[in-house]
Amino acid sequence: MSLIRTAVPADVPAILGMIHDLAVYEKEPDAVKNTVEMLHAHLFGENPQVFAHVVDSPVAGETIVGFALWFLNYSTWEGALGIHLEDLYVRPEARGGGHGKALLRCLAQIAVERGYARVEWSVLDWNEPAISFYNSLGAAPMDGWHVFRLDGAELGAFGAPAPGSGATPTKEPAQVRV
Length: 178
Fold this sequence. Notes:
Layout: E1 3-6, H1 12-25, H2 36-44, E2 51-59, E3 62-75, E4 80-90, H3 99-114, E5 119-121, H4 128-136, H5 152-159
Parallel strand pairs: 4-5
Antiparallel strand pairs: 1-2, 2-3, 3-4
């Protein structure tokens, strides 16, 4: 029998292991920079902004066979919070047992109970098994939208203070001159 539960600190190594497994599946095996310490701080630090649920199910000696890692987002049009699902992963040997669906149902229940407007996520365009799975739940792709990202050197360059401004980066800019 499976159990969906909120992650606890002892789950962090297993979650990070599955994050690495997901990176391999998504053809980015060397892209994960996260560590046990970093993930622990983000999930269980003083002011957590990231949340996780896990699936406990004894399969092939593993207790935790899947996880969902998520954070809150906000819709200016709806005027409501929502859930952004960053990662959903179920170990290959545990797939087909309803664990992914149970994790997504858990997030949907949280959204409904808390009055959130939506649960959303991204999926790689080549990941047909995931796309079929999400379609089977009634989820739909957002037509006409593309995901953009600013990271790495481009983020550093764009986010740096303007030369000669004397400005130093702060935790949250009070105002930006345009």
